[in-house]
Fold this protein.
Amino acid sequence: MKVAVSTVAASTVAASTVAASTVAASTVAVIGGGAAGFFAAISCKTHHPTAEVTLYEKTGKLLSKVKVSGGGRCNVTHACFNPTQLSKSYPRGEKQLKKAFSQFSSQDTVDWFEQRGVALKTEADHRMFPMTNDSQTIIDCLMQETRRLGITICTHTAVEAIVPQNNAFKLTVKGTSLHVDKVIIATGGSPKLTGLQWLADLGHQVATPVPSLFTFNMPGEKITALMGVSVAHAQVRIQGSKQKQEGALLITHWGMSGPAILKLSAWEARGLHAQNYQFKVQVSWTGAMPEQEVQQVLQNTGEEHRKRKLANKNPFELPQRLWLFLLEKAGLQAEAPWGDLGSKSINRLVSTLFNDVYEVSGKTTFKEEFVTCGGVSLQDVSVSNMESRVCPGLYFAGEVLDVDGITGGFNFQAAWTTGYIAGMLR
């Protein structure tokens, strides 16, 4: 297959944007044409303007996950500008990313794009998108920057082997041997351990990859008849686990989705994989409201609206279809007046609202945004520069590492941060 190559003469980079080089590197190979790979290549050429930087992508698609992220709008980052708080959104990698974010934070991401003419906006849930609401804006920015800096991009070009050799590396590309000084690996997550075996062969510990950020399938549950109904503030947890997550919950024709479910799937990724995705999820439709408060609200409603029908007085302002469904599940007649509810009926409704249980059987990948839990162990990587501890001169960035965040722009932020740091080649 023909290799697509784009080469543009390197532009002069302003001295103020170039950090002092601490590692001499005349040739650098960046493997992976996703967000982390592009940002690593750009960072590398910015910090080492005389280096020859080549980005290799085995497919014909560049920045494919950027393209589909956020429904085609690209959730660039999250409006959390405190490194400690930001790191708490990563089920794997929190401690290490806290240090990394002190070098390149979400604010740095915002500044980086805005300095290149891409303004970002913050939505109500703190997700950040380009003002254009179009992921192509981000892609165009990154592509333009690689052209400006003179980075070579090779598509349909897989790196078939990496062999450390005399403080450098020999790469096999399309059957030809190439010699480079440094290598940055940003190949993304792999759905199977075999896809990461080549990194294990270089001496790295690799955590077995399992899916993260997925929705719950409930083929036997009647609630799927309410597909399209969403609740703004629900709380969910896996039965038998103390982990709780809050946020919007969406009922689908296959089960449940939405930020609350997706966040829970990330935190429970390994446990749910071990259960073969056969488990029970407990839903509190009133969010974080304590059980006693739920009960008090129902009692007060019964006293203040004795003649109102249950169907017509919804004290928690839940979607009407869901409210009627929950009344029926609690064994209550929607046409009955509130004043007729006895303590047993109220207790049944409290239990249904506060601790509603559903049987889950299987999962569904969230749209096209496949995220894995697993990858190269952070024990084998120095987070201060993203360099391998077992293979000097080899750097890592992005989801190839055992790092993953919850939904909301966190995975892209990890890609920008680790890519930026790796590209410095310190």
Observations:
- The first helix runs from residue 35 to 47.
